[in-house]
Amino acid sequence: xxxxxxxxxxxxxxxxxxxxxxxxxxxxxxxxxxxxxxxxxxxxxxxxxxxxxxxxxxxxxxxxxxxxxxxxxxxxxxxxxxxxxxxxxxxxxxxxxxxxxxxxxxxxxxxxxxxxxxxxxxxxxxxxxxxxxxxxxxxxxxxxxxxxxxxxxxxxxxxxxxxxxxxxxxxxxxxxxxxxxxxxxxxxxxxxxxxxxxxxxxxxxxxxxxxxxxxxxxxxxxxxxxxxxxxxxxxxxxxxxxxx
Length: 244
Description:
Blueprint: E1 12-16, H1 21-32, E2 36-41, E3 58-62, H2 68-76, E4 83-86, H3 99-125, E5 129-134, H4 147-167, E6 172-179, H5 188-191, H6 194-203, H7 212-223, E7 234-237
Parallel strand pairs: 1-2, 1-4, 2-3, 4-5, 5-6, 6-7
Helix pairs in contact: 1-7, 2-3, 3-4
């Protein structure tokens, strides 16, 4: 991290899916830049369970983003909000060809992002704020092993554009990050397959898989004053994977 320690001082951030993987890395990076961060996950976490950021700048709350009432309750308890990162997501791979499972994945990964953004909008509008949605390289390519996940992430790109247009008059910027192949629990099934792991590494021009921290830096930029005129964009963080 090369950002100033006070870059986001005084800002309040909410990171859904912030208790592990990419979300946890983003939460830690925001806190390292001075923000106060609320991280959420489907399970009940305490700060002691969460190792992504110092407890004086971070607290954890249980939240299912598919539960609109729960989203409204959590947002209703926050006195201020400057940053929202929609990182909550699930994946069920081949089971997603079952329409019921497909619908569940869309409800969490896509509609959940809309629920949180809409519930957060009044707070964000008070001083202008930033929303960062987590898309994927599968936003731009088919996902034969995870059709629901790919469809949801494709939808995130279009949702990001739509919200950016709608929220701009209130001073709220909305952008997305499209991570490439990142070493997290989400990708463990692929990483455990030596052939697929090496094929992805070989296709990536930078010659490696990404780390959650690679995505976190992009998120800090999009949430910072340096991105004051950036909205509606989807930024790939993929080591050049989409360029090949």
